[in-house]
Amino acid sequence: MSRILIIEDEVAIAHLEKDYLELSGFKVEMEHTGDEGLKRALNEEFNLVVLDLMLPGMDGFEVCKKIRENKDIPVIMVSAKKDDIDKIHGLGLGADDYMTKPFSPSELVARVKAHLARYERLVNTNQKNNDMIEIRGIRIDKTARRVYIDGEEKNFTTKEFDLLTFLAENPNHVYTKEELFREIWDMDSVGDIATVTVHIKKIREKIEGKTSKPQYIETIWGVGYRFKV
Ligand code: CA
Fold first, then answer.
1. 93 and 8 within one domain
2. How far apart, in whole angstroms, are the C-alpha atoms of residue 181 and residue 192?
3. Residue 54 structural domain
4. Neighbours of ion ligand 1 (CB under 5 A)
């Protein structure tokens, strides 16, 4: 079931939107400030965000920008002023759609459905062509098992390649060394979690400009590692 987040300070409007979306079978959560809404949008799994523009604290422009920096889920922006639509356009915030208040709840439902369907198609297409992973300067060709950093090929051992690919395919997820060891090495293989540390170090030497300040694979102290996007 698709989960939708409504960020809207006018509680009555938020509830109206929620009711209609729930009648259409969506699971809906509400937040009434930009800051709280952004926190949930980034920390939880939502399929779509309905975002009001004028919010107390952080406004919709800023929230949209921050969501976009981290997630590619559809964002439908809602504004009471027609002029704002031009501003949304002009700022290139990456909103997928915008609606001017007042709008009919059924129109909102129709647009939500259209964007979810479109996004699902996009994700499916990407999954079919997922032999190539490209994240900022890194390009991983999974079929040929080759890695390019800023266009230059670097050599990776089998396990280094598997570890890098696994992390890059699951960005922003923090894995413990134990989890990574289980994932990449066979149960009965020689070694322990220190092997993971050694491999991370070697991967960093190949992909990071400055290994003391990693841009890709972050150490989460006391927990493990994550590939930052
Ligand atoms: Ca508002």
1. yes
2. 7
3. 3-129
4. 9, 52, 54
